[in-house]
Every structure is written in structure tokens, then in C-alpha cells.
Sequence to fold (141 residues):
Amino acid sequence: MAVDPETGSIEVVDYAIGHDIGRALNPAIVDGQVAGGAAEGIANALLTEMTFAPDGQPLTLTLADYLAGTADGAPVPRLVEREMPSPTNPLGIRGVGESAAIAPPAAIWNAVARAMGWDAVPARIPVTPAALAGADTRNCR
Fold:
């Protein structure tokens, strides 16, 4: 993780994923689903923010209303996959597409906090450049 506290610039230098994929019927598709899920999760951690008016009405209604991640902005993750057939179905398969999207916000926030020398992690996601620039630990838990 490379963080510039003055500008709020964050670069994910390396990202690794350990995953129990069940039985891979098509390993190339599994790798693509896991990498795509990680890119989505990283974008959620760094860019994508749903905002709401005080009365609860959403303010981010279209893609023009928030930053969205792109494939060229995401690192190529290192995948460490383990094939352990699931006992819950005859093919031994597991879902893999969305699972890689769950961990990135927590992992990214912890890496940002560590890079900033903080003992706590910030209390809101995403960590946009504007939110990080000049930030301190008052909004951390």
C-alpha cells in the first residue's frame, strides 16, 4: 500500500487472495471471477460511495454521481486457491464470484491505517482521496 497523506493518493501495490474454491470446473473462469470480485471490492473500499440526503433520499443515482473503479486501476491479485470439494452438492462446487469482493474494504482500510501510522482504522468507507487528505485519527475506531 502506498499512501500520500498530503494529497490523499492511495495505490494498492500488491493484493493477495487465499480462497477455498471447492471444485473448479473451469479454472480460468474461477480465476477471472475471483480477480473481478477483488477489483470490485477494492473500488468499493477506495472510490464508490452512496450518499443520502437527511430525509434518506439517495443522492448518488447514476454512474456520473460517484467515482467508479476501472480494470486498469486495480492490481492483478495473487491468487492462492485451494480446491476442496464441497460436500453439499454432487459436483463439489462453491460460489466464487462475489466472495473476493467482501474482504477488500477491511483489508484496504487496515493497510491505509498502517501506512499512516494509525493505531485505529477509520470509521467510514470508502476512503476517497478527499477524505484521506489531511486526515487524522479523530474519526477512527
